[in-house]
Amino acid sequence: MRVLVTGGAGFIGREVVAALARRGDDVVVLDSLREDVHGPGAVADERAVERVVVGDVRDAEAVRRALSGCDAVVHLAAKVGLGVSLADIDDYVSSNDLGTAGLLRSAEVPHIVYASSMVVYGEGRYDCPEHGQVAPPPRRTEDLDAGWFEPRCPVCAAALRPGLVSEDARLDPRNVYAATKAHGEALLAAWARQTGGSATALRFHNVYGPGMPRDTPYAGVAALFRSAAERGEAPTVLEDGQQRRDFVHVTDVAQAVAAAVALPQATGSVTPLNVGSGVVTTVGEMAQVTAKLLGAPDPVVTGGYRLGDVRHITASSEAAAAALGWRARVGLAEGLATLT
Question: Could you report the per-residue pLDDT of 146-190, keeping only the tens digit for each?
C-alpha cells in the first residue's frame, strides 16, 4: 500500500512514517518544513519514504503531486498548540481548516486517517453527587483568581467528580486549536459522505517522546517540563498541579495510526477513536517524575492559570482496542526515560 503522510517530517509524523515503513508500506511525505514548527534548517528524513514533497497542504499542486498513486492518507499536518490568544487565529484557521479542506478536495483515496485531538471535548466527563453526569460551563475568572480550579455543577454549583470521556460525548472545543480540530472532523465527515470513503479520526491525548517540539509556542507541557529540568530549573506547574491528563508515548501513537491505516472502519462516515495510555496522571505528577529523572529541583506550583486550559480531560481508549486491536504499551517512567 502507498500511503501519503502529511506532516510526515514532524514529531508524530516521523514515528508514523517509520511504523508504516516497517510494515512494508510505501510512504510519501508532504511537509512544509515550517521553521516555527520544526526549527531552522529542518529537513525530511528520506530513508524510509518513497518520495518527499516539500510543500504546504494549502498548495493544490503540491497536494496533487503528493497524492499521485496513493491508496490512503494520514493527515497529521497542522498548526498545533492552544491558540489561547486571537493574535494568530487566522493562521490556525488557514493552516488547519483550509489545509484540511484543500487536501480533501483532491483526495481520491478510499481511506483517510485524521489526527484529531482530545481537545475537541473541552472539559472531560464530570458527575455531580446530586445531579449525575453534567456538562460544566467554562470556569469563571473569579473562581480561578480565588484558587478554585475545579469546575462547578451548572445546576447546584457543587464540585464535580471527573471521569473518563467516551467518543460519543458532546464536542465542546474551548480554544482556537480545538475549534479547528473539531471542524476538521466535520469536514472529514462531509468528505466521507460524499465520496463513500472511510475516515478514522484519532483523538490523540497528550503525546510525548523523543523529538517533541521544545522551546516554541507550540510545545506541550511534557516538553516544557523537560526543557526546564535540563536547564537545572524547577518545572513550573500552573493551578494546583492536580489537573488530570493522559500522557501517551509517540511510539504508541504511531502504532495506533498504522493500525487505523490497515483497518478502515465504516464507509461513508467518520469513526472517532480516543488514543491514550489509559492511565490518569496529574500534571504535577508528570512534572515531579520529569524533575527526578533529570536531577532537577522539585516542581514549583504557581497557582497561575490560562483561560484556554481545561481542568480535567482523560478518556477511555477501549473503542480503539476493540476496533484496531491496539493498546498503548509504554508506561510513563519508561517513556520519559527515552527523553534522556
Answer: 999 999 999 999 989 999 999 999 999 988 999 999 999 999 999
Any catalytic annotation for residue 218? Answer: no
Helical pair 283-294 and 221-230, crossing angle rounded to 10 deg: 30
Q: Please tell me whether the overall predicted TM-score, pTM, comes out greater than 0.70 for this model.
A: yes
Question: Half-sphere exposure of residue 270, counting CA atoms within 13 Å on the CB side?
Answer: 22
Q: How big is the chain, counted in residues?
A: 340
Cα 244 to Cα 162: distance, rounded to the nearest angstrom: 9
In angstroms, the CA 177 to CA 324 distance is 27
Amino acid symbol at 164: L
Judged by DSSP in three states, 250 sits in helix
Q: What are the cell numbers at 87?
A: 493574535
Q: What is the pLDDT of residues 271-285, one digit of tens each?
A: 999 999 999 999 999
**In this structure, what are the phi and psi dihedrals at residue 191, rounded to the nearest 5 degrees?**
-60, -45
| Secondary element (H or E) of residue 221 | helix 221-230
The DSSP line for 286-307 is HHHHHHHHHTPPPPEE-----T
Closest to 175 (Cα-Cα) out of 135, 123, 248, 216: 123
The single-letter DSSP state of residue 109 is S
pLDDT of residue 306: 87
For the chain, give the mean pLDDT. 92
Of 92, 114, 177, 208, catalytic: 177
DSSP-based three-state secondary structure for 51: strand
